[in-house]
Specification:
This protein is mainly beta. The chain contains 1 helix and 12 strands; from the N terminus they run αββββββββββββ. It has a single domain, classed as Lipopolysaccharide (LPS) transport protein A like domain (lipopolysaccharide transport protein A fold, Sandwich), CATH 2.60.450.10. It is globular, with a radius of gyration of 20 Å.
Length: about 170
Amino acid sequence: MPRHAKRLTHLLWLIIATVLTAAQAETTGADRAAPVELAADSAEVDDASGISIYRGDVVLTRGALRITGDLMRVFTDTERQLQRVVVEGTPATYRETMPQAAPRRAEAPRMEYYASGPERLVLLEGGELRQGDNTVTGQTITHYPAENRTVANGDGGEDGRVNVRVLPAPEGEQ
């Protein structure tokens, strides 16, 4: 193969890798360009304060992200960008579909989702975070999706301990 053809092939593979990496980065975490959609039995929206309260079978979706609960408070900034969501439920739930990975799921009586600074999910009053067969349970769990990092505390919960279950990756996925 001539030298210029090798360079062209190398350049083509570099472009493909860059596009795939950018596409994967766009689909991990909440898609900030996607609209926030809410459904509930009732809603009270105060644009002046940027606080909305939703009651009864509440569902928030944004791209690959879905949060549900019985009562949800949604906080936005002056440009109506999502800042924070506080949700209570029996249980409140979180689901994020992941490209080429098992969905990330969580549930707790109360949770807080922060869209930035950094993006994080905080499970309160006893929660569980799952991805595939891997689980973390504790009284307070904070998950940072962009960093794929989780911090958990027992905080004197049921047995005052954190429980973590991590299975080895299947062969070929390491």
